[in-house]
Structure to design on (157 residues):
């Protein structure tokens, strides 16, 4: 299936110039179906492979992965990982609508504290770019609450 995963990447790359209508009605549903039908082994490979893909491909993949019906993919972790890779401000703006719920749903047991801290820094920096410094403390407060829960969970082990 690695060939299939590579084929998915090529499929996305080859269609990056298509219109939004084509993406919405043809390409995105095809991508979502492909991801939904991956078995456990292929889902594990997919979850590793995509983190090496360029941000244009990852941006097109993010929603489809998040809303796929694949039970083997840690969707919240992968979405957050994609968010960390993306640098384009418009793409980050779009992905930001889902980032807080995904961040809050990260598995404390599996995800390192370092990952949580990287996410905090990326979200804070994007918040400042988008909204300025005003109210950044209020925004960061909810992020810190999640990180504090992570730290408490780690300490209780």
């Amino acid at each position: 299936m690695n060939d299939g995963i590579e084929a998915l990447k090529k499929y996305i790359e080859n269609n990056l110039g298509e219109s939004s209508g084509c993406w919405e009605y043809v390409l995105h549903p095809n991508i979502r179906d492909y991801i939904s039908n991956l078995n456990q082994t292929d889902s594990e490979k997919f979850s590793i492979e995509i983190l090496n893909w360029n941000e244009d491909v990852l941006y097109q993949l993010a929603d489809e992965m998040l809303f796929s019906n694949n039970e083997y993919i840690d969707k919240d972790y992968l979405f957050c990982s994609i968010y960390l890779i993306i640098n384009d401000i418009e793409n980050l703006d779009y992905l930001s609508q889902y980032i807080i719920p995904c961040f809050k749903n990260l598995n404390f047991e599996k995800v390192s504290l370092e990952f949580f801290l990287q996410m905090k820094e990326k979200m804070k920096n994007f918040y400042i770019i988008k909204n300025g410094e005003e109210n950044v403390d209020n925004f960061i407060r909810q992020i810190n609450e999640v990180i504090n829960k992570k730290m408490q969970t780690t300490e209780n082990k």
